[in-house]
């Protein structure tokens, strides 16, 4: 697939929302006019210096940016290879990178005069971020969450409700993230006149994959600057976990045209790639779902298959369309980590650095433990610590209890 | 090119009445019963039949049609078997128009060219694909038109006058006006608003306009049939089917008749309409 390598990896998507063969606008007619309006509103916001200035103000004083780029000294010593830096997105207000995107989208929603915000959530991090910003700006907030995820991410459900959001447990289909997204789309089709759909990842119909990526790119832009200050050069490699892939796109995008930077995305391999998993690139193929063409897990009839990951945030049978394109063009290497590898990485980072990572981010750490020892000591490796693990402690406690018995 | 759909609307115009368009989910609750229901529909009064292609993630459908799709998938239904069902129907009926309705992914995976060839051979007349707006016409709409199939577009309350020409540009057979912003099986449509919307669409096209979403009773079907060239009923039929199943969700001896009876009573409503819109 390397025959048509672009001059730049940073110019996409085209005006119809395509990244190569991926992306697009596969939505019901009811939504199409709104999606075109959103595209216009976002283009206007992007070109408006006062919008950017206002957003930067909130990023600094409300979110707490810039997030630190932290040298993980003990993890580096333990692995004995590359010098490992953690991009501390888990220190953001609300505990993950999700808030970067939500802030941007809520500001666009306000420009469009929308008073009601809906969102889907898997682990609850995007739901919490959306509930938080809705509280801050006095907007109605409804969060769709698969019933399975409501059970395994209870702390975030309480948090959303405390913030004034209505959490709707979704009982249809597999009762996880994909069904939450279906239900959010059904709400949107019904309430299109007053409702803004705040999508939590770099997926959905154009312009969402581009817009969410742009709002998350603050991660990579800061990393460039911070690495320059710390080491006086670019990092040698980047690693991030991928469900839909927004934290990864945010870190990767500003580096895509720097060929010296190796880039790794880590999908969730669940019980293993030959069993139940959530690794769309490793185990799927291109198809059309939720508004875009991308790699999906499905059967021979084109029916979407159940994903599985220990981490609710990665438990999705698709991936953002730009990742599918970066995979086929060969710019980014996509790996996967199993549930057990992620759990081990969770414990490792907690014990060595005093930082419990979200189970999602633990997938990236798991691959760091494989890649870092094979790299020289002057190799600078950045891993996106996209969320904090507090929300996972009840679930992990249960798993560890179960294993002792 | 005159299709079965064009021919049917021409006949109905001569009779001076509107079309009754019925929906059933292919393979619900099992492939054999589903074919029996399909065969019973024209006799019960269906003028045009939409056949749902089951999909795991039907984003524009309400709980009834979602459940119907899952029952069908559980019974082993596939797109290939849906086309077999069409062939089975065509052995007996070569005039009633059949329109496949659903989502793009199963067709994309089947292969667009192969699907269009197989659908045409099987006796399919048109396609309604919910997640293919005119912005994605290159995917399936244009190839379908070239293959001699009608591509029936949905117009909605959010499709304004500025956008209508784009929506209608490659539409053929008829225009399906979705009377509400929402999912299938949701609130009923207000017939005054529907009349205004149909008149608005008709200012842009000579195609027949059928109206669906929210029609459940003969009275509602009649009210819509007085405003439009056709009334589409789906959820009410799927619900009648569901209510006829046994506790394990299997077909009973009542299942085919349960659907046919509701179709017959709704058809009375459509046929009782004072005057078809023109």
From TrEMBL, chain A:
GO MF annotation, one: tryptophan synthase activity
Q: Which UniProt keywords apply?
A: Amino-acid biosynthesis, Aromatic amino acid biosynthesis, Lyase, Pyridoxal phosphate, Tryptophan biosynthesis
What pathway, per the record? Amino-acid biosynthesis; L-tryptophan biosynthesis; L-tryptophan from chorismate: step 5/5
Instruction: From the UniProt record, list the reaction(s) this protein catalyses.
Output: (1S,2R)-1-C-(indol-3-yl)glycerol 3-phosphate + L-serine = D-glyceraldehyde 3-phosphate + L-tryptophan + H2O
Q: Where is the Tryptophan synthase beta chain-like PALP domain?
A: 64-387
Record bears the keyword Methyltransferase:
no
Q: Which domain of life is it from?
A: Bacteria
- Which EC class, in a word? lyase
Per the entry, which co-factors are needed? Answer: pyridoxal 5'-phosphate
EC no. given is 4.2.1.20
Which GO cellular component terms are attached?
Answer: cytoplasm
Q: Which Pfam families match?
A: PALP
Tell me its family.
Belongs to the TrpB family.
Protein name, per record: Tryptophan synthase beta chain
What species is this protein from? Answer: Bradyrhizobium retamae
Upper taxonomic lineage? Bacteria, Pseudomonadati, Pseudomonadota, Alphaproteobacteria, Hyphomicrobiales
UniProtKB/TrEMBL annotation, chain B:
Pfam families in the record: Trp_syntA (PF00290)
Signal peptide range: none
Q: In which pathway does it act?
A: Amino-acid biosynthesis; L-tryptophan biosynthesis; L-tryptophan from chorismate: step 5/5
User: Which residues are annotated as active site?
Assistant: 50, 61
**UniProt-recorded Gene Ontology molecular function terms:** tryptophan synthase activity
Q: Which reaction does it catalyse?
A: (1S,2R)-1-C-(indol-3-yl)glycerol 3-phosphate + L-serine = D-glyceraldehyde 3-phosphate + L-tryptophan + H2O
Say if the entry is tagged with keyword Amino-acid biosynthesis: yes
Q: Which PROSITE patterns match?
A: TRP_SYNTHASE_ALPHA
Q: Which NCBIfam families does UniProt cross-reference here?
A: trpA (TIGR00262)
The record ties this protein, via HAMAP family, to: Trp_synth_alpha
Protein name in UniProt:
Tryptophan synthase alpha chain
Gene this chain is encoded by: trpA
